[in-house]
Amino acid sequence: MPIDILKCNTDRDPMDFKRLHQVSLEALLTWGLGLLIASCILTAALAFAVWRFTNGAFNEYEKQDIPMALLASSSQDNWLRARGYEDNFLLSPGGAVDIGEMKARYVTLWKTNLDDIHVNLKKIRETAGANDYAVVSLLPSIETALANYEAGFNSVVDLVMRLGDADSGLEGEMTTKVRAAEEVLAQARLPLFVESLIALRRMQTDFVLAGKDQYVGKFLEEMAKFDRLGTNDGLTSSHRQSLLAAVKEYSSLFKEYVAIVRNLELKKRSYVQAAQSLDSSIDQLQYAALQNADAGLKRVKQRIGRTTYWAAIVALAVVLFGIVTAAFVSRRIRAATQRIIGFAARLAAGKLDARLGQMETGKFGALESALNTMADNLQETDDSMIHQAEVLIKRNRRMALLSEMTGLLQTVASVDEAREVVGRHMASIAVGATGAVYLYEESGNYLDTLTHWGPGKPPASFAPDDCWALRRGQPYGTAPGEVTAILVCPHVKRGDTTHQYLCLPMIAQGGTFGLVHILFGNDESTILSDEEAQFAARLTDQLSLALANIKLRETLREQSLRDPLTDLFNRRYLQASLDREFARAAREKGKVAVLMLDVDHFKRFNDTHGHEAGDAALILLGRALKGSCRGGDLACRFGGEEFTVVLPATNCDNARQWATRLLDMVRKMEISVRGTTLPHLTVSIGIALYPADGEDPDSVLRAADLALYTAKHSGRDRCVAKDAAVEQESRDI
Prior knowledge:
Blueprint: E1 4-6, H1 18-22, H2 25-91, H3 99-127, H4 133-136, H5 139-163, H6 169-188, H7 191-210, H8 213-229, H9 237-348, E2 354-356, H10 362-409, H11 415-429, E3 434-440, E4 447-453, E5 461-462, H12 468-472, E6 476-477, H13 490-493, E7 501-508, E8 511-519, H14 530-560, H15 571-588, E9 592-599, H16 602-609, H17 611-628, E10 634-639, E11 642-648, H18 652-667, E12 671-673, E13 676-678, E14 683-690, H19 697-713, E15 719-721, H20 722-732
Parallel strand pairs: 1-2, 14-15
Antiparallel strand pairs: 3-4, 3-8, 4-5, 6-7, 7-8, 9-11, 9-14, 10-11, 12-13
Helix pairs in contact: 2-3, 2-9, 3-5, 5-9, 6-7, 6-9, 7-8, 8-9, 10-11, 16-17, 17-18, 19-20
């Protein structure tokens, strides 16, 4: 770059004094420096006097007003923490740690914060001065309300600890009594007693969770029923006596629990009133302390203002003297500084090629040489900053694209939509030369490509053991500055092994569900550096969280529409599907068959063989329904042992044929639990048609239910259409 040399103007200023021209530039600067030092000493003496005068006002402000404001603010913080521990105590659940220890810890922390408030109030009273009456007058009411609140909450603590949890307190005692009764019933083997005891336990659990009095009444009714069952001849005298004693003790404990819960609500209302009063009082205390501090600050400012006024007058006189003296010195050094100022102006204007051409001797010559050196350094720095600016622009663009991608991923509904978003943005972000994003398949045995970018084409899929990053659970690849990794991943060996690469596991929500693979190039824009490695890690973290959320939303959406036991659609999905199918049938003037199925004598089967056998039967029936349905048919679990099948574009005869095949399939269905073959089951089926039996889902479902009712009363193990059901009902009437 060519250098612009600035020439010196040697013309003498006609207004310069002859005697000043005879003095060297260094001497003039020394004289000016001496005057400056003298002015500084005088100014320092004046500042010290001002400091001494205002120090008293500041001491009063710092030792009284500020500490009081800080103590009031600390009291506010302690109060908020105490309320937080109060809420934690009341809401803390049982779990891995003992609930009693947890609640005791919250009470201890709550007490510690209240003690801190007492200490702060005492310090405020000790610190207050004559001007702090507004703050001190609030202390008695705060201390009274604090004592009421503390006493009220302590009484609530005693009641809550008495209630206890499933292993301690009243709940623990009730659990012990129920277990004692269950041991007696286990020996007697009387199902009616077991059902009644389960109902008592359920009423107790409902009251503990909801706190509603209606469960207390149901508990007492069930208790009376249990007493009547106590006369059953199926019990021996010893069993009856021990059973009734355990249940009566259980009933007494439950009544005591109910009384404590009701008393607890009264106690809560009492201390909550005191807490609300304290909220207002502590806020008033903090406001009064801040107002008091503000008033103290104003007093300090007034005293400083008066002192500063006189100090300014003296300082102004010193400044005027310095100006007059500097005027003489400035004329001599102006010629030397004009060139330097022009040089600096050109540098400031961005002309970094400017240099000083004519050098003076002495100190100013050294200064000019140093300025030229500075210009050289500035030009080098400018070149470096231009390069850094380009890097920052690229980084900001990539961060904007990354932010845009993560924002779009928050709105997509499926992984398929995410594939397009990730593919387009990763190509624009251009991390590395080429790369791909892989996701685990449902089986977890291999990974498939979600998307890839760049000119190359990585492997479409590979096993988890083919990647060292997935084996180790942490990023793996070529370190920045190295040519190759120590051990190259097998899935990379099948591709390009001549370039640096990184494999970064996508980890989110406690598990690894994918991999980001990046292959770097040899040019400056795609080479692996520390910055590129850090950005790749950040990109992987954000991409992991976004894709994990998408997969979680897909899973939750699927779970909300399916029955977890049979894997059939649930009643919620049925309602939405019926509206859709009926609307389609109305447009196409077609028919829709709706079948209601109910397992015959399922309750007896469940009671005889157990819930595990009942669940196994329902699972097999669900599989049979799914296997019998066509692509457009819909099988749902309506509730309990009832199922609903929707057959679009199906008339009554075809629906009967389908139901007959299902009846035969169910009769032959083998039910086996733990190696034991159970009796065969049958089902009853009711058939209704849209629009013949109704023009809305509720009407058609009622018609199908009526037909099912007729099939039940006609001997079960059969299918009945709605028209036959109406005819049968007319004959019955």
